[in-house]
Specification:
Arc Repressor Mutant, subunit A; Four Helix Bundle (Hemerythrin (Met), subunit A); 2 strands; DNA-binding; FCD domain-containing protein; TF_FadR/GntR_C; transcription
């Protein structure tokens, strides 16, 4: 566990920030705490913190979206991280959802064709964990795993890479799009049944139904968040 230090040296600040990220087990697409929290946790001035963040951003370790926050990049020193950061500032939540509607039903269809028995089990486990979630945060984490497990089940590394990049942009542009009126998903949350239909179609090796079920699910999500897309 990191302890608070009086960090004023710029070089030390970068090292402390790297250690904080490593100790926090942050994954690609995860958002770092706000600057105010980082200043308190790491014991450094706002100016020093921002310089350290700028260095990590130039290295491709993180990317930042004005008004959304600072996110862990998908590929540490990969120039594509900068491209995704730029994209996220140009993409609206509606455009993001249209991209999902174009890509993810096709991924579900490919998963129904190619998924191994082990891949189907991973999809069903993620579905069940989302159903049992005790908070929205926990639900969203398992929902992410559910959708990524479907992309993994295609056996197509290019489709998986496209999914990961779209998902990284999604986290940025839709971060504040949802207003919650409860602490956890209600028992009749529509995504539960939709997830089940998707998983069942993939398990049944039914590509057409898997495609339709995923499109119905994302259409339902779109309607809840943004109205008709």
């Amino acid at each position: 566990m990191l302890t608070r230090t009086d960090t004023s040296d710029y070089g030390d600040a970068i090292s402390v920030l790297r250690a904080f990220i490593k100790a926090g087990n942050y994954k690609p697409g995860d958002r770092l705490p706000p600057e105010r929290e980082l200043i308190g946790s790491l014991g450094m001035s706002r100016t020093t913190l921002r310089k350290a963040l700028e260095t990590l951003e130039r290295e491709g370790a993180i990317w930042r979206h004005v008004g959304k926050g600072t996110f862990i990049a998908a590929h540490g020193n990969d120039a594509r991280s900068g491209c995704l950061a730029a994209l996220s500032q140009q993409v609206s939540p509606v455009h993001m959802m249209r991209a999902r509607l174009s890509l993810e039903p096709a991924i579900a269809r490919e998963a129904a064709i190619n998924a191994s028995d082990e891949a189907v089990i991973r999809i069903k486990v993620a579905r069940d964990k989302a159903l049992e979630a005790s908070s929205w945060e926990e639900y969203e984490a398992h929902d992410d795993v559910f959708h990524r497990s479907i992309a993994e089940a295609t056996g197509n590394v290019l489709l998986l890479a496209l999914f990961d990049q779209l998902n990284q942009v999604r986290r940025a542009v839709a971060w504040n799009a949802v207003v919650r009126h409860s602490t956890r998903p209600p028992s009749d949350h529509s995504s539960f049944d939709e997830h089940e239909r998707i998983a069942d179609a993939i398990e049944a090796r039914d590509p057409a139904t898997a495609h339709a079920a995923m499109r119905e699910h994302l259409g339902s999500v779109s309607a809840r968040l943004f109205g008709e897309v």
